[in-house]
């Protein structure tokens, strides 16, 4: 988890999350801030300096999120198989409808 250890600047977070757009990261951070999971601190300097860090509530989610990630890694083959079966059924359904 990117924010678990210490505060990070927006650019640092973006570098650590491969492929995320600036807009999507902004929306995610705002949502997490709104939910009380992330604290945004703006420092009154030029250029602006903003850091994001987990709140105590956010830290309380660290263990469950890590456990979920481990579960997903252990079951990735089953997840991939389910996705392939679903996609094949969808494709077959589209073909039959046309």
Automatic annotation (TrEMBL):
Species per Swiss-Prot/TrEMBL record: Acinetobacter baumannii EGD-HP18
Top-level taxon in the UniProt lineage: Bacteria
Protein name (Swiss-Prot/TrEMBL): MarR family transcriptional regulator
Stretches assigned to the HTH hxlR-type domain: 1-80
InterPro entries xref list: HTH_HxlR, WH-like_DNA-bd_sf, WH_DNA-bd_sf
Coiled coil: none
Gene Ontology terms, MF aspect: DNA binding
Keyword DNA-binding assigned: yes
Keywords: DNA-binding, Transcription, Transcription regulation
């Amino acid at each position: 988890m990117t924010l678990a250890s210490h505060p990070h600047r927006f650019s640092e977070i973006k570098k650590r999350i491969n492929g995320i757009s600036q807009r999507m990261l902004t929306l995610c951070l705002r949502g997490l801030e709104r939910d009380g999971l992330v604290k945004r601190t703006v420092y009154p300097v030029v250029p602006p300096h903003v850091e994001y860090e987990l709140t105590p509530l956010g830290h309380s989610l660290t263990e469950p999120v890590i456990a979920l990630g481990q579960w997903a890694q252990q079951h990735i083959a089953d997840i991939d198989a389910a996705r392939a079966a679903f996609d094949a059924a969808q494709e077959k359904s589209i073909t039959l409808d046309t």
